[in-house]
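Input.
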Amino acid sequence: MTDLQPTESLPTLPKIRKASERDITPIVLAWLKANHKGCAAIEVKITTSGSIPANAVAKHQLSALRDVLGAGLVWKIPDIGYSKKPFDAFMLSYTSAFVVCCFSRKRLCIVINAKEWRGATPSTHAQYSFKY
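Output.
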């Protein structure tokens, strides 16, 4: 019997990584632009599990989303030297605010009104839902 010796190394396999909010956000924004009429404030969350807890949206984020539903939120866009910004600031008031929950194993996003945010599962009542 002959001992086999490797003559060359194995090829490097690509790393498998979880999808991130950074990866899914452009997909969510494109879908909302095509399917939601009007302005909106949007917070995107993604999970590989079957649920997203209520505290996944930080208190300050939820407060800002809910401000948009009423009297408004004014935000100054920071001046940073490495990119062009579209304008100096924006104000959103009396408009939509959503928490978008993406369940990567199901390739499903659900769009929940921020006023109704209490955490989410794929079966949570949503204003919109879509597969990606």
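Residues 54 and 117 are 7 Å apart (CA to CA).
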